[in-house]
C-alpha cells in the first residue's frame, strides 16, 4: 500500500494519473509490475521531451560544410594494399567485434515477427539474420578468427529472436560468440503531454532509437564482454541490409591509418531529392544532416566534377573505437521527436484507435555521437556492393529490390 500511495502522489504531482486507469482490474502481480514501471519513469525528463515537440528543427546558426571522404573504388593498388594490411592485422588479432541493431519488427513489411527473421524471398529461404551471419563465417575462413557478434534486440522481440537463433542452431556460428542485449525504451506521449497507456494498462513504451545502442551496450554488459575479449574496434550496422559488410579490413585500416576514433560508410545519393541523411561537418565537427533539414539549394549543389557536394549518404554502417563508445555511452545523446499513430486507453479506459498521427515518440540517432569526435574517416563504397535495404513492403527498398541486389552481387541466377 505504501508503494501505491507513493505512486499516486507522484502521478498527481505530474498530472499523469491516467497511468492507473486499469490498476483496479489487474492481478496482484500485474499491479506490482505497473507500480515498479511507473517509479522508473523520469517525469521531469518527460516534461522536457514534451517541450521538444513544440520546437521546429532547423539548422539554425549551425555552419554546415561538405565532409572529406575516401572512395574505396578509386584507391591506388598501393593505397589499397596498405589499408588492407593494417585492417587484416587488427582483425586477425581479434580486435574487431560486430553489432547488429535488430530491435525492429517487420510491421511495415506486413510481417509478424522480428525483422531479422524475415525471408527476403531467395530460393534458400535464408532470413536476414542468416544472410548477415554469412559475412562472419566468411571472415572465419579468411582470417581464422571468430568475430564476436552482439545483437541488439528490443523488449518486444527479444524472446522470439533468441528462440529463432536456438531453433536454427545459430546458423552454424558458435553460440559462445553470440550475445544478445536489449535496447532501452521510453514512454510515448499524447499531443497534450500525457504518457499513453497501452491496451493492457501499462505505460506505452517505444524503443529509444538506434542512438540508444551505446548506452544499451554499457548497461547490458556487452561492453564489458568486449573488453574481456580485448576488442578495440566495434562495427555497428543494421539488420535490414543483407549486403552489410561487417568485417571490412579497408574500413578498419582507414580508421587506424587516420588515427580516427570512428569511421563511417557512405554511398552516393541516387538523386538530389533522395530521402536520406548525408555526412557533413557541423560547426567543424563530423555530423549528418537530415533530409528534412537540408535546403533544396544544398541538396542540388554540385562540385566542379559534377558530383553532389552533399552526396555522401549515411547508410548506418559505422565503426567505433571501444574507448569512444565508453565516452558516448556515459553521456546521453539528444532525443528527436517523431509524430506517429498509436492506439491507447484514454482516462476512462476506453480504447482510442490511432487512424492519424496522434502521439509523440522519441528516438536518439547514432549520428549524434559523431559531433563528439574531432574527426571521422568516411569510406565511400558502391551502393550495389553494400546497400540493399529492406524497409518497405513494395517499391523502393523492398524485399524485391533487396533480393535482386543480393542475387546480382553474389552472382545468383
From TrEMBL:
The keyword Lipid metabolism does not apply. GO terms for molecular function: uridylyltransferase activity. The keyword Transmembrane does not apply. SUPFAM superfamilies: Nucleotide-diphospho-sugar transferases. Keywords: Nucleotidyltransferase, Transferase. InterPro entries: Nucleotide-diphossugar_trans (IPR029044), UDP-sugar_pyrophosphorylase (IPR039741), UDPGP_fam (IPR002618). Belongs to the UDPGP type 1 family. This is UTP--glucose-1-phosphate uridylyltransferase. It comes from Candidatus Merdicola faecigallinarum.
Amino acid at each position: 500500500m505504501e508503494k501505491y500511495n507513493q505512486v499516486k502522489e507522484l502521478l498527481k504531482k505530474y498530472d499523469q494519473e491516467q497511468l492507473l486507469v486499469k490498476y483496479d482490474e489487474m492481478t496482484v502481480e500485474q499491479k506490482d509490475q505497473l507500480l515498479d514501471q511507473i517509479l522508473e519513469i523520469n517525469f521531469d525528463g518527460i516534461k522536457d521531451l514534451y517541450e521538444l515537440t513544440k520546437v521546429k528543427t532547423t539548422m539554425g546558426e549551425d555552419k554546415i560544410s561538405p565532409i572529406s571522404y575516401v572512395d574505396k573504388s578509386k584507391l591506388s593498388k598501393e593505397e589499397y594494399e596498405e589499408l588492407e594490411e593494417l585492417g587484416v592485422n587488427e582483425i586477425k588479432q581479434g580486435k574487431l567485434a560486430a553489432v547488429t541493431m535488430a530491435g525492429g519488427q517487420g510491421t511495415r513489411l506486413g510481417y509478424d515477427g522480428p525483422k531479422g527473421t524475415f525471408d527476403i524471398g531467395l530460393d534458400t529461404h535464408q532470413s536476414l539474420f542468416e544472410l548477415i551471419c554469412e559475412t562472419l563465417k566468411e571472415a572465419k575462413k579468411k582470417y581464422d578468427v571468430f568475430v564476436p557478434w552482439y545483437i541488439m534486440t528490443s523488449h518486444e522481440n527479444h524472446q522470439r529472436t533468441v528462440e529463432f537463433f536456438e531453433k536454427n542452431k545459430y546458423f552454424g556460428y558458435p553460440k559462445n560468440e553470440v550475445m544478445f542485449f536489449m535496447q532501452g525504451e521510453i514512454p510515448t506521449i499524447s499531443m497534450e503531454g500525457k504518457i499513453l497507456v497501452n491496451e493492457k494498462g501499462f505505460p506505452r513504451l517505444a524503443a529509444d532509437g538506434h542512438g540508444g545502442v551505446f548506452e544499451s551496450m554499457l548497461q547490458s554488459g556487452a561492453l564489458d564482454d568486449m573488453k574481456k575479449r580485448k576488442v578495440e574496434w566495434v562495427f555497428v550496422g543494421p539488420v535490414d541490409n543483407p549486403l552489410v559488410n561487417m568485417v571490412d579490413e579497408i574500413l578498419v585500416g582507414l580508421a587506424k591509418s587516420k588515427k580516427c576514433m570512428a569511421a563511417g560508410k557512405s554511398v552516393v545519393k541516387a538523386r538530389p531529392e533522395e530521402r536520406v541523411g548525408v555526412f557533413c561537418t557541423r560547426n567543424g565537427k563530423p555530423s549528418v544532416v537530415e533530409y528534412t533539414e537540408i535546403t533544396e539549394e544544398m541538396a542540388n549543389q554540385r562540385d566542379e566534377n559534377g558530383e553532389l557536394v552533399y552526396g555522401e549518404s549515411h547508410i548506418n554502417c559505422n565503426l567505433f573505437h571501444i574507448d569512444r563508445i565508453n565516452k558516448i555511452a556515459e553521456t546521453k545523446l539528444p532525443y528527436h521527436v517523431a509524430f506517429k499513430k498509436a492506439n491507447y486507453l484514454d482516462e476512462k479506459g476506453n480504447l482510442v484507435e490511432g487512424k492519424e498521427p496522434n502521439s509523440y515518440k522519441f528516438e536518439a540517432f547514432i549520428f549524434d555521437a559523431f559531433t563528439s569526435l574531432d574527426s571521422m574517416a568516411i569510406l565511400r563504397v558502391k551502393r550495389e556492393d553494400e546497400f540493399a535495404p529492406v524497409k518497405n513492403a513494395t517499391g523502393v527498398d523492398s524485399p524485391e529490390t533487396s533480393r535482386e541486389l543480393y542475387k546480382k552481387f553474389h552472382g545468383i541466377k
